Amino acid sequence: MRAGAFFRTLLLTATLAGCAGVPEKLPAAPWVLGLTPGDLGRPLLISRLVTGTFEERRWRAWVEIEASAGRLNVVVLTAFGVPILTLEQRGTSDPKITVLEAGTGTLDPRFMLFDLQITHWPVAPLARALAENDLTI
Fold first, then answer.
1. Handedness of CA 29, 35, 45, 20 (dihedral sign)
2. pTM of the predicted structure, to 2 decimals
3. What phi and psi values does residue 31 have, to the nearest 5 degrees?
4. What is the DSSP string of 26-84?
5. DSSP 8-class letter at 102
6. pLDDT tens digits, residue range 83-137?
7. Angle at Cα 12 formed by Cα 9 and Cα 15, nearest 5°?
8. Residues 10, 75: contact at Cβ < 8 Å?
9. What distance in Å separates the CA atoms of residue 131 and residue 66, rounded to the nearest whole number?
10. Which is nearest to 113 in space by CA: 42, 40, 41, 55?
11. DSSP class of residue 105?
12. Which of 20, 38, 55, 66 has the most C-beta neighbours closer than 10 Å?
């Protein structure tokens, strides 16, 4: 299956599962960088199993990321493939975050987006965004 078809299928699945989801109401965070998918300057396609420990509990989740000049899609699934959350950003709009019923409540998607941006976005737009928040590289 081609990567594009895979992500369309994955996003459709997450969207359908999202019908049962509840949009997450997150307070404004001053550290959100305001970078756009266009600031990335290149396409990005990542599929990873992420593991970690939080409050003495081990977590595993699949993270699927697709970015292009005009959009960013992030889908987080349990190790068994049940959607936990989606993050969608189109152009310069603010990211739309949907935490699905399978979500644990301990995963803040804003931290994920921040980590993604400081890891993969080019230095110039990242430095500009950090400077706007009184931070430096």
1. positive
2. 0.73
3. -85, -5
4. ----TT-----HHHH-S-EEEEEEEEEEETTEEEEEEEEEEE-SSEEEEEEEETTS-EE
5. T
6. 888 999 999 988 898 888 655 566 678 888 888 999 999 999 999 999 988 888 8
7. 150
8. yes
9. 26
10. 40
11. S
12. 66
